[in-house]
Give the backbone structure.
Amino acid sequence: MKKFGLLFMALLACSFAFAQVDEEQEGEMDGSTMAQPVRKPVETPWEQVTTGEWAEPVPYAYQRQADVMYYHTIWRRIDLRDKKNHPLYFPAETKGTWRSLAQTIFDAIDFENPENENALQVYSDEFCTLPYTRDELKDALTQVIQVPIADLETGDIIDYNEIYEQFAAKDIMAYNVKEVWFFDKQTSKYYVRILKIEPILEYERQSNNNSSYDEENGDDDVRAMKARRRIGHIYYNELRPFLVKQEIFNVKNNAQRISFDDVLTFKRDFNGYIYAEDNVYDREIADYIANARDQMIESMRITEKLRTYESDLWEF
């Protein structure tokens, strides 16, 4: 009888311990802690089914090199200030299930988990052969700001404090895209494919203007300057699995959900201008045309050359 009582007490203690563990795990899963949400984002009065988690990018058709009779490489800039490109920039901050293109890229890089082997890779060269380390990538996304320290009695600047400011996804204001336009003789079609994409940061950089130095007060005129920074090159085929899982705001019909992969790869529903094409001098349009208006005219000329190539093949 005594052994039976001890066994009963042991089983009771074990069941109580397992119940505690189950309650803790359940609390982590149902979001009872402050770090976890209690439910999926409430955006519609009906149950919203998201298929993006299982979506896979539509593969390109196999392309034989022998069938490519002509190809041309261009570099295009997508400015997010253009109204047509606003669905790529907004929302500036994540809201529910909506994320911007830059935030989708940042989440794919996964800065919080450096050991993640499936994270998106960023490269230092446009041919995507030399990957950045995590430390190098964080340095590219960090700005050092010098804050002056003034003497309490005289007011003179005696030293500077360095503050490290981390850039956010909303600071990405443009993308450089490398595209290849080619003609396939087997299908008699003209195709375009994106090779790589390069996010461009735009921020206010503080600098000292020594020309307005005030000898009497002893301080410099610190002014803010607009600066741009390229954070690295991303191989587009490695980015597509992340783009296909993120829905974009459809300005025509919100009930018809489309992904970033649909917009960039197949629909090509964005505005951009050509700032370079492959040439023997390896230069951009700005290197041989100084005037901004003439640069745009040259960009339009290259665009028209790409458009008319296919139609010229069928002239009799």
